[in-house]
Amino acid sequence: MIVAGVMSGTSADGIDVALVRISARGDDYPKLRLLAHEAFPFPAPLRRAVLAAMNAPATSTAELARLNWRLGLAYAEVVRVTMQRHPMKVELIGCHGQTLYHQPAAERYAGAKFACTWQAGEASIVAGELGVPVVSNFRPADMVAGGQGAPLVPLLDFVLFRHGRRGRVLQNVGGIANLTAIPPGAGPEETLAFDTGPGNMVIDGLMVELYGKAFDADGAVAASGQILEPVLRKALRHPFFKKQPPRTAGREQFGREYVAGFLAECREVSKRREDAVATATALTAASIAEAYSRFAAEGMHGATVDYVVSGGGARNVTLMRMLSEKLKPLGCAVTTSDKFGLPAEAKEAAAFALLAWQTWHRRPGNLCSATGAKRPAILGQVSYV
Predict the structure, then answer these.
(1) 141 Cβ partners below 8 Å, 6+ apart?
(2) What is the C-alpha to C-alpha distance for residues 96 and 86, in angstroms, rounded to an integer?
(3) Cα separation of 328 and 314, whole Å?
(4) Which of 71, 79, 346, 371 is the S-S candidate for 37 at Cβ 3.0 to 4.6 Å?
(5) DSSP state at residue 243
(6) What is the mean pLDDT of residues 319-328?
(7) Residue 9 pLDDT > 90, yes or no?
(8) Spatial separation of the C-alpha atoms in residues 251 and 302, rounded to whole Å
(9) Are 319 and 219 in contact (CB under 8 A)?
(10) Tens of pLDDT along 227-252?
(11) What pLDDT is stored for residue 342 in this prediction?
(12) Which helix (H) or strand (E) holds 94?
């Protein structure tokens, strides 16, 4: 079965589409082969609308309804273009949608206490425009089962990267950074996954504010700056970094309000713009390394560990250097998923192709050890043609 996976992450920089051939192997995990990958930037007006809606203190129902519909049109268009560029019969689409709000812990609202999440992007539009059924809205079923609704990529990590003798850590660095730690010879119940903290989110926020650019290309700005150690030490005392897994993060913790405070802290120490970007990059690297050391390293039992980075952060040369410097003493060899035949930007889209395939075949898609769910759950909702 050829499945298209569609992903737009918390960075809100664009949409990735992965075409994946998935073959059943009895009751065992399926076999995957990436056939094609395309990346599409958001049109500027749509990106502005997405960023304005994320964790917004106030908006209108009209804005949210229009954004939900507009995202559906955008997802349909990028899948259509991908299918035109790579002609093949796509039988199913897995569309994650755009996370506008994610609250993994129960809070009181309108007389009841509950957790909630929302991924926008009308899946019926995608199905209707392309004539292909769509699986979407993956996270709620895990949350109803007692999980945090994230991370959901660990199923793909386990299926593709588990190894009998080597430890594997799959580190995604999107807007938020998350890792999946697979000890040598581990089963799914021994696989640990959680959000480590900010990935590109704080770096990108500073680049927009200070340079009018969407991101730090190749980490060049960070490379020219100095790390402001007092700011970094204070930032690493954020309560999120002390939380035990399972844990998830988003713009609620590290979005625009956090970036504004972080920049103010930097400006008290240095007026140089590049120093703020360098310090934010160091925060991402340090929080990743500390999370691995504190929660995952012991489970590797001294084995050689391949530390495999994916997501947009894998293209940030300065960040990758900082990660290598911090993780090498912990016995980790840092590389990218490209070395394993999966482009760094394609992995999350491929993951939602797999999750859609699981749902279509009525198989669970969550790893309870990753999300904290009390039971495996079949994820998502199907929009038929």
Answers:
(1) 366, 377, 378, 379, 380
(2) 21
(3) 17
(4) 346
(5) P
(6) 98
(7) no
(8) 35
(9) yes
(10) 999 999 999 999 999 999 999 998 88
(11) 92
(12) strand 92-95
